[in-house]
Amino acid sequence: MKFAWWKKEQRPLIFIIGFNKTATRSIHQLFAGNGYASVHWDDGKLALRMLRNMLSGKKILTGYDRRYQVYSDMIFANHSINIEANSFFKILDRDYPGSFFIYNKRNLEDWLRSRASQSQKLGENSFIKRQMSLNNTSEPDVVFEVWKTQRLRLEADVRSYFKGATNFVEIDINNDNVPGMISDLLQVELDGSHWGHIGKKKYPASPQV
């Protein structure tokens, strides 16, 4: 089966619901390289819009859903608030029935180290410093425990919610066949040469359609 991607009103949306630092940009580039309108993070505006839409009673992706088909790295974080919008997957499923969901994960310790090292050159505005401020602590280990708890809870919830579902796949990003697994989910063959080319071939962070 091959879906009519060119008909916007019929196209299924695709949600990458792993946390940041789990190859979200690589997955975004896989889709962008295959011609999909894909949005990755969007400087945190994606997560903020999702929250505002829910608070105002609108469909969660209002303002984005007519422009993009694939969504990844749905996070916003500053010193006052942290929005892990991947946790809104049930609302996404409710508002956009027939969509696909990909839970991308990596080794827990590698993930923690990658998050901790993110943008350290920013000093007090680095990701770990903002997370420490949010949790009112000067100890990174406190933040690590929070992240571990968040991840384990999300994984349990995702696995329970999508148990037996045909519109969901869980992927370890170190698997040798990530493009193939996503292709099997969508029932559309993706060109795997666009996978894992960070820093080699550039795609726009938020391509327009």
- What structural category characterises the helix and strand content? alpha/beta
Shape: globular
Order of the strands making up the biggest sheet: 2-3-1-6-7
Mean pLDDT, rounded to whole units? 90
Q: Which band does the percent of strand residues land in? A: 5-15%
Query: Cα-atom Rg, whole angstroms?
Result: 17 Å
Largest sheet: 5 strands, parallel
Structural commentary:
The chain is an alpha/beta fold and 209 residues long. The protein is 37% helix and 12% strand. The strands form two sheets. A five-stranded parallel sheet has the order 2-3-1-6-7, covered by helices on one side. Strands 4-5 form a two-stranded antiparallel ribbon. It is globular, with a radius of gyration of 17 Å. The model is unreliable at 1-6 and 199-209 (pLDDT under 50).
What does the secondary structure layout of this molecule look like, with pairings?
Elements: E1 14-16, H1 24-33, E2 38-40, H2 45-55, E3 70-72, E4 75-77, E5 82-84, H3 89-95, E6 100-105, H4 108-117, H5 127-134, H6 140-161, E7 168-172, H7 178-186
Parallel strand pairs: 1-3, 1-6, 2-3, 6-7
Antiparallel strand pairs: 4-5
